[in-house]
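Complex record, two chains
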Amino acid sequence: MLTAHSVPWYKTLPAGSTVVPIIGLFDQTHLTNFSGDNKAWPVYMMIGNILSRTRNSPAKMPILLLALLPVPPKFTGESARANEAQRQTNADTLRAVFDLILAPLQPVAQEGTVMDCADGKTRLCSPILSAWITDHAEHAALQGIGSKSCQRFEVPCEELGGDPWRIYETRDYMRYREKALWHEPAEAAGIAE
Amino acid sequence: MGVKIGNNLFIGLDRVSPADLYKPDLLHNIYLGLFKHMMEWVEGFLKKHKQQQVFDHAWKEILPYPRFSVPKKAYCEITQWQGKEMRNLGHSISAVLASALRNLDSSQYPDFKSALKCVSTLVAFSLMAQYRSHTPDTLSYMESYLQTFHRTKDIFLAFRTSKATRTRADCQDRELRELMADQGAKEVHHRTLANRCRHADQERVERSDRRADLIRCENHFNFIKMHYLTHFASHVPRFGSISMYSTEIGELAHKDQIQDGYRRSNKNDAAWQILSQYGRQHPLGMRLQTIEALSKVKGVIVAKDSWMEMPAFSSHSTPRRVLKGRMKNTSTLTELCATLNIHYSHIMQEILPFTRQTAADDRRLPADPTELGLLPVEGFAQLEIPVPDFQETDRFQIQWARCTGTKAFCNGGPRNDWVWVQTGGEANYGDLRGRVVARLLALFNIRNILSEAGAVHRLALVCILDPVNSGRFHIASGHIRVARRVNGRDMRIVSIGAVIGQAQVIPSGERQWIVNHRIDLWTFNEIY
């Protein structure tokens, strides 16, 4: 999805346009104990322009169901290699599904689109993904980081519980990606930042 | 660190910075995460100091409070915790712990102090994180709480032994024992029995020392939930309050959108049916809400281009305190006293000074005891107190303070709740700022039929507790303590307007209580 004409996040929008911050939610839920533990992986979406009190009340229906992700089968545990293959398939599927989900955002975030607003006016809106609310384990799966690492900063493992007022470098996921493109695939898999 | 390069799903999206997508998560990170860890540490700590029984006892004694479910079991009997229960636990843990650890001897005193400090600061941090609006001051408080937490957390380091460390310690233990047994076998023939015993003791001490050393080296606090606390305070200036981005909302949505849909599906090809089910529900729900909103708004001006104008926001008036639950056989003061099992002379002794304090107009109650005894009275069992919602101006939370006298409440014992009573100015009673903790003994109204105005006085008879150490925080326990008056009269008649809210106190020894000021945001903000 990395394209040559990508606009970095800090570039300003055209004057007079409205930002529509999109908040994504992603959480696993348990459906039934029967028929082999059915689960669902819904992805929800809401927008940040709604007042937070309204947004946080379920009766006002602010949350839209965006997609139900395919639930991967359980690990068979037969062999480490089968598990590894399964894990790879899971990651690839997740990636493909998310490309599909986020694809409509790509052109409109860049150019903006004219939308009807609740007060009857029409505005040039730029929907931009700005928050993703899930718990840590699912964040780690989506952002492709280890389960013991912080999403925001590069923090060494031994200092996670330590003095909080040290300045760390903010994670630059773009740089990781570029590094990965430079390396051979086999080598890239082994690199841990 | 560990980054699986190129796997980030948000990379390459325009104007999106993947590092900023993360939002602090109160539910999983604090309630279900750190509070749970903290309870393990506290359990270990109590075990070390042999105070589990006292803690369990104090835990069972917690009194009811609005939005707080009273634990029905002892702490050790509970096997599974929900998010809400964990939050309840967090709000009362520091006071319960302070109560449980009150009578330790002087050698345990420093440990006790820093453990309590650590627990209290974490709870205070979590309470601050729930604020709906922040100022630079509150943020700096949050940061200082976090620093104090990090400074004092080492007291619990001994109880953070992971399974792997324990296995390694066991393994080392076994090896050492074998080694020593080998050595002992070589020298055994020229030893007396007493000598052998002494030798075995020495070996045992050495083994336990080595084990303690290994555990001390291996234990650490380096887990991710600990680190995320650092992002809480810095998140607020950039993105707004933390409670806005709660994960709870997503879990609530499962019920309406997924689980109901699954229930209605034929369970065979459920995904499609779930998706289309909510697709039907949502437009209908939105339409209903639009109709409701339109019908509420009066005088809507619908202009040509369907432009809607909302009317000016009407200011809400403060709801009044209401007495409810009229009691039978309480038509005069004598009968009220008989029903509630209070001595008649006590109530008379209190009501006369109260009368003298009120303004001398025709609303005033008569000062003559015989006349007072004739006035009609109604006794009540419940007082509705509207308490302004924290950091809100027009929303109120209703607290129901019960006062059932000697009668049982809901198959339990009688309930005579603890309340805050405003008595003096801000300067009185130290950190309590003019408030005292009191127990409701009777709620009644009295009608002055002798005067023309026929004014109704709504009064409460309360039993007042004196703050220990003139209301300053007790340094060792970090809480304010209150005690029953040893001599002198402790009952007082107050107008129900002076009752400002319910209080939570936790018994701590003979005639003493600990004020739990971390029970909710309102109390926490008023007393700190």
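Note: The CA atoms of residues 272 and 313 of chain B lie 44 Å apart.
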